[in-house]
Request: fold
Amino acid sequence: MELIADILLAAGAMGAGFYCLVLSRRLKRFNDLEKGVGGAVAVLSAQVDDLNKSLLAARHVSDGSNKALTQLTGRAETVAQRLELMMASMHDMPEVEPKAETPAPAAAEESDALAAAYKAESEPEAATEPEPAKPAGLMFVRHNRSQGRVA
Reply:
């Protein structure tokens, strides 16, 4: 009976040793720096470092853009206020009606001849140079200062 127990004990030890050998080989392949998970972890770590550097650079650029846009917005608001004051002062001015004077007949004929000559000269230039396209829609929109602030 002891002999059978010793044989079974030796067989169990040999099986456990073989199992440990297989596991160690698998673990070496798993942690291999070129092909295994170790390599993937190393590559991902390098990519995380690169992304952190890119993120810091993007933050720096966006902070500079934010400062520039803040300055431009301040200047635009100042100019808009000045334009509003100018427009308001234009409404306060009295309207001047043009005087209806009849030109002398000789002066009228002379001005008609000058106008016809001017049209003849300006028509070929107008045909060669197309007019620039006018922008459609609103060009300026006034925003409330409290809406655009981000804390």
